[in-house]
Every structure is written in structure tokens, then in C-alpha cells.
């Protein structure tokens, strides 16, 4: 079974501490839409608490990946949308509970003026490649 190959620092590119610059993989693409801090009933988890929201978002990502026959081991790219860059440590902590440092995906973090509802502090989407 093929697993994604991570290249944390290509020649001539400064190493990244919290992501891999390049991830390659061959297989079936799984795209997971941006996940929000909602429980299975659609209720907000962690109002005003970026750590609680991040934990719920990563649990939702885990469930979505599982529905497609994937795991966090298959994730090649995460995109973080945050309303405040100060929320990134909470996002990284929640990610660390699911993704070990040696399997960090490529990542982008974008600060946005707002998400779909004002109480949402963050949203995370994922791309995974499942070995064929």
C-alpha cells in the first residue's frame, strides 16, 4: 500500500516547522469540504473558544475522511481559515491529536474577515489521497 511522501524542505527552500512544503501521492483523491465546529446535531461547539472549536473541526474531518475510506495518514493538504491568526496554536494542538509530526501534510493558513456565521472562529478543509 502506497503512502504519501512528504518533502519538508526541498533544496533551496527554508524548512517549515509546522507543515511539509511538498506531499506527493498516487491513488484516489478525497476532497473534504471546510468543516465547521458543529456537532452531529448542527449545534455550535465551543462558542468563543478556539481550542474547543478546533477539536470539533478535527473530529468532523476524521469522520468525513472515514466515510470516504481515508484517515489522517492519507491527508496531503490542509487549509485553515481563521478569523484571527492567534487561533493557530489551538488549531495546531487539535491537529497534533490526529496527525503526528512525521506525517504533517502541506498546509495553508488564511485569515478571513468572517466565516458563514459570526460565532465560527475557524474552518478547515482537507485533501487526501487513498492508495488505489
From TrEMBL:
GO terms for cellular component: cytosol. Pfam families: Ribonuc_L-PSP. One of its GO terms (molecular function) is deaminase activity. InterPro entries: RutC-like_sf, YjgF/YER057c/UK114. Belongs to the RutC family. PANTHER family: 2-IMINOBUTANOATE/2-IMINOPROPANOATE DEAMINASE RIDA, PROTEIN HMF1-RELATED. This is RidA family protein.
